[in-house]
Amino acid sequence: MAVLWPPRRRMSAPCFLLCFLLGFVAGLFPFAHRHLHLDLHLPLPPPESAFREQSVDPPLPPSPPLLQPDAPMATEPSERKLVLVVTPTRARPLQAYYLRRLAHTLRLAPSPLLWLVVESGEATLEAAALLRGCGVMYRHLSSPTPDTPQDPRRRGRRQKRPIDSRARQRNAALDHIEHHRLHGIVYFADEDNVYSLDLFYHLRHIRSFGTWPVAILAAGKSKTIVEGPVCEGSRVVGWHTRERTKNPQGRFHVDMSGFAFNSSMLWDAKNRAHQAWNYIRQLDTAKDGFQETTFIEQLVEDETQMEGIPPGCSKIMNFHLHLEDKDTVYLKGWQTTQNLDAVIAVNKK
């Protein structure tokens, strides 16, 4: 017996379109919940009366950091002046020791600091390798070796060399600073001296030209001499000098590592006393002991344009040592491929 089903009604177009849109929206709902960060389980906000009953205390301001009585005020690195440390050097047995010792001191000094190392003659690979691992921002420069003056009357005999070839090395660093307009405080730090970290804190307080006393080890290494300014506060009123005469020669009695100045004085005549000078450099023809005063006379006219640091100039912050290494054999690359002679032989049983 055949069963007859009733005929199926055809779905109208509006009903089909409505069902299609409902299914499409239901399918997109999980994606909309993910991208629009919808959270259907958020708690209801509390009534306004709850906010009126609660009182929130304002946050306390942060307490200032504790500072030691004698510690200098710390500033942000962006507000500190750049210290340009100029160090002349040459290839010799103790070069690695001097440079590494000075590098350890500069690495502890506050930034920003740029170390300008100037070698006499061509730059050596040994010094370049040491500077790459010193941990200090540096620039490795070289200065041409000064020519030996030829005297026709002294043929066959030893010719006289310039008094201080390090003057040309410092001038090479000054040329680099002026050419690249490096704004900061220029300081001549010889590699064989000893420096305190307090010195690099006080250097950044110099406005134009600053000076301080330096302890110098005498030639006989039996006593220490102090050379530098005598101050009342920050005003220079006199000088400590190593000369024993009543009328010492020279205008300013300062060691080469006992002063620093603003680098803008090299190219901006408005920042220095002698506006007629167009080329501020050290004179390699000056006599021994006059290198400092002849250079300072190009920057300032008298003591009124100097700043004594620290106030009172009663603190020794660096030492000038006379250490010679003439009798030491220079090892190429600072190393030897042969065994060293044993001073005490090992007893073999």
UniProtKB/TrEMBL annotation:
Per UniProt, the keywords (alphabetical) are: Cell wall biogenesis/degradation, Glycoprotein, Glycosyltransferase, Golgi apparatus, Manganese, Membrane, Metal-binding, Signal-anchor, Transferase, Transmembrane, Transmembrane helix
Q: Which InterPro entries does this one have?
A: Glyco_trans_43
Q: Which GO terms describe its cellular component?
A: Golgi membrane
| Topology versus the membrane | Single-pass type II membrane protein
Q: Where is this site: Interaction with galactose moiety of substrate glycoprotein?
A: E227
Composition bias (Pro residues) maps to 58-67
Predominant localisation class = Golgi
Q: Which family does it belong to?
A: Belongs to the glycosyltransferase 43 family.
**Function of this protein?**
Involved in the synthesis of glucuronoxylan hemicellulose in secondary cell walls.
Name it. Glycosyltransferases
Q: Please give the organism.
A: Zizania palustris (Northern wild rice)
